[in-house]
């Protein structure tokens, strides 16, 4: 039997995170393209990011038939937040810069690469990346490499850089509560054994 679920954050009602989710404005528009396998994942950080940002949109799929429309937002220049040899490291906007439509694939690295393969328009976007050295607060998983962040962490860090000195730290509050709740549920001994 399933537990009652919050219709907004999709967490069990007893573990609803809505009270911690901010409502942040940003100059940058964020388009999250979420792989279907992530929707019901217990640690759905893309949903937390979309709920916490007033200028964000979450679209679920693997092939996006309407991608051209999603990317054509007047007043914004689309950039894919995804590593590549030719990716530009994000830097703060100058007053004359056109804001970005920051396109963020959400899924495992393998699934995100598959989404790029299945959506040539997505793969063709100019890429941007975060500066090296980001440290994840996601203490429940082994990162595939240094600087690997969860989706909400990557978005918060990107916005922090682009829109400095505005703080996007509140975006991480529900994420941190989610991690703390998972650790509490497994117990300290199990956490230390598997993740400590």
UniProtKB/TrEMBL annotation:
Span of domain DTW: 2-187
Enzyme class: transferase
Sorted UniProt keywords: S-adenosyl-L-methionine, Transferase, tRNA processing
Molecular function via GO: tRNA-uridine aminocarboxypropyltransferase activity
Statement: the UniProt record of this protein carries the keyword Mitochondrion: no
EC number(s) stated in the UniProt entry for this protein: 2.5.1.25
The keyword Repeat is annotated on this UniProt entry: no
Protein's GO biological process: tRNA processing
InterPro entries recorded: DTW (IPR005636), DTWD2/TAPT (IPR039262)
Similarity comment text for this entry: Belongs to the TDD superfamily. DTWD2 family.
Name assigned to this protein: tRNA-uridine aminocarboxypropyltransferase
Organism in which the protein naturally occurs: Pseudomonas poae
């Amino acid at each position: 039997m399933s537990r009652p679920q919050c219709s907004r954050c999709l967490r069990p009602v007893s573990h609803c995170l809505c009270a911690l989710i901010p409502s942040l404005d940003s100059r940058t528009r964020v388009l999250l393209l979420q792989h279907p396998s992530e929707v019901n994942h217990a640690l759905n950080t893309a949903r937390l990011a979309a709920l916490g940002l007033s200028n964000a949109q979450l679209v679920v799929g693997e092939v996006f038939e309407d991608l051209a429309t999603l990317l054509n937002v007047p007043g914004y220049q689309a950039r894919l937040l995804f590593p590549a040899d030719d990716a530009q490291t994000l830097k703060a906007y100058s007053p004359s810069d056109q804001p970005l439509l920051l396109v963020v694939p959400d899924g495992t690295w393998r699934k995100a690469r598959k989404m790029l393969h299945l959506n040539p328009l997505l793969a063709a976007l100019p890429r941007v990346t975060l500066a090296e050295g980001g440290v994840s607060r996601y203490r429940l998983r082994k990162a595939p490499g240094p600087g690997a962040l969860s989706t909400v962490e990557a978005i918060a860090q990107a916005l922090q850089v682009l829109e400095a000195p505005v703080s996007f730290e509140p975006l991480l509050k529900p994420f941190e509560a989610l991690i703390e709740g998972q650790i509490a549920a497994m117990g300290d001994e199990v956490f230390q054994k598997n993740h400590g």
